[in-house]
Structure formats: structure tokens, C-alpha cells
Amino acid sequence: MTSHGVKPSSRVLVIGGGYTGQRFAAAAKAQGAQVWLTSRSAREGAQWLHFNAGEGAIPQLPEGLSHVLITLPPNGSGEDDAYNLLKEALQQQPLQWVGYLSTTGVYGDSQGRWVDEGSPTQPGLRRSQSRLQCERRWLASGLPLQSFRLPAIYGPGRCPFQQLQQGTARLIHKPQQVFCRIHVDDIVGALLHCCGLPPEVRPALLNVSDDLPCPSSETLGFAAHLLGCKLPALRTFREAEGEMSPMALSFWADNRRISNALLCQDLGYRLLYPTYREGFTASWEEEQTHLK
């Protein structure tokens, strides 16, 4: 099969050079591609483009872009700065693939039932409603775009190890509540996998989640096992909710299981970390390596 993926001749732009964006950029560079990233603050290096809509800093895009990844969430008003300010410039580029990072929050609360790409989108949270509106606008842009719906993202520096070590972790149980998650490197892997597929077989919508939705108490217990430390006292959600911020409470508002069957069965992507156990272990090892 002819390769449509990232290769040495590719020119890649990452709009939003944060945690996932930098990880994707590093993987694209490793395949020989020329890569640029945007940042809200001015950063040194020719690969960094200053893009801060609030400051009026709008970059002139490199010419001949082949691949673009959009990681920016909606702004405080629910608008998409990348769409509003860069879409027309992107439409002038010879793009082969555009990836947009969305959220599984667009499905809303399924009361713990499984959802897939064909499930209704009924987001209850305002930020998820905004993300769904932005996703729909990108999908209607005429660009060769795929939207990747992501649950909680974890990886090195994004696991509960530091909270356990500092004594700030909270062990909370809410009956029947589960969470879905994905390691950052499986996001990158899924993106690159889809870049390499023929355009006619790329689905417009794709869930990227691991194989094991489970309670947060289960993942925290495994993290404590890796560190060899004690868990905090178990509290019920009802006991703890009065002390939670509105943002913290919002994470407990939705309860759903995300199916990755389209990605892993139909499209043939093999997860690097099928569950949090493999992912936490690898993340802990990477964090320790960086400390040496």
C-alpha cells in the first residue's frame, strides 16, 4: 500500500504545542519530517510560531504544509481561535491530512453504558458543548480532517505519582462510576496510524481510548503500588463533593464507557498501552529515567 503518512518530505504544523502537541511533533521529527509548533508565548527556535489571539499575534504559516494537528481547545468564549484566524490560510495549503483533537465529553452522560462514534452527542458540560460546536465547524471546513475524540490524557508527568508523594491525592469512590483514559503516546500512535491510511478509509470521527474503563480509585491504587506508598483514606463521593471545585465536580458529572472498536478492530491500530497498568508503569519508568 502506498504510504500516505508522515515521512521525510512531510511539512507538519502543530497548532497548540502543549503536552500532546509536543509529543506528536517529536514523533513526526523522528520520521524525518520538518515540524513547526505554535505557542501562546514567544519561544526561542525557528520551529516555534507565536500564536496568541488575545495579543493579536497571528503567525504567517510556512508554505507547502502537508499535515496539520490542531490541539487547541475552545477559548473562554467557546470560540475556536485556530478556526477563526487560521482556517482560510490552511485552505490554501496542499494538505494531505488534518487532525483535530476533540473530547469524548461530546457524548455526555451515558450512565456507564458503552458509546461509539455512532452514539448521540448530548454534552451536558458547557466546555463539551463548545467543543462539539468547534468540531462540527472543522468537519464542515472542506479540509481533509479527522476529529479524534479523547478521554482523560495521561503519560509521563500526568499520572498521580506526585500527588501521592506529596500527600495531596484523594481516594474517592462513587458507586458504578468509571472513567476512560488514554496514554499520550497512544494518541500519537493513533494519529500517525491514521495519517498512513488511504484518505478514502479514514473515518471523520474516531474514539481514541484504552481497553479498560474503571474507577479512579483503581488507578490510584495501582499508582500507589508502583511507588510503594500508602493510599489516603477512602472517602465516598457524597462526603467529598462539598469540598470540590466546580471544575473537579464536572469530571464526576459524566459516566460512560468509550468503545475503541473502530480504531483497534476496523482500522487495525494496536494500542501501546491497552490499560492503565502498562501505561502507568511505562510513565513511572520514564519519569525516573529523566531524574537520573
How would you describe what is shown here?
With 292 residues, the chain is an alpha/beta fold. The chain has one domain: NAD(P)-binding Rossmann-like Domain (Rossmann fold, 3-Layer(aba) Sandwich), CATH 3.40.50.720. Helix content is 34%, strand content 17%. The chain has helices at 19-30, 81-91, 126-139, 161-166, 184-195, 216-227, 237-240, 246-251, 261-266, 276-291, and strands spanning 11-15, 34-39, 48-50, 67-70, 97-103, 114-115, 145-150, 152-154, 171-173, 181-183, 205-207, 234-236, 257-258. Strands 3-2-1-4-5-7-11 form a seven-stranded parallel β-sheet, sandwiched between helices. Strands 6-13 form a two-stranded parallel sheet. The chain has a two-stranded parallel sheet with strand order 8-10. Helix 1 crosses helix 5 (184-195) and helix 6 packs parallel to helix 10. It starts with 10 loop residues before the first strand and ends with a helix.
What is the first-to-last residue Cα distance?
A: 42 Å
Number of beta-strand segments: 13
Biggest sheet overview: 7 strands, parallel
Q: Structural class, from helix and strand content? A: alpha/beta
- How are the strands of the largest sheet arranged? 3-2-1-4-5-7-11
CATH topology: Rossmann fold
CATH architecture: 3-Layer(aba) Sandwich
Mean pLDDT over the residues = 96
The rough form would be described as globular
Poorly predicted ranges (pLDDT <50, ≥5 residues)?
none
- What's the tally of helices? 10
Percent of residues in helices comes to 25-40%
CATH class annotation: Alpha Beta
Number of domains: 1
Give the topology string: H per helix, E per strand: EHEEEHEEHEEHEEHEHEHHEHH
- Strand percentage: 15-25%
Radius of gyration: 19 Å
What's the name of the CATH homologous superfamily? NAD(P)-binding Rossmann-like Domain
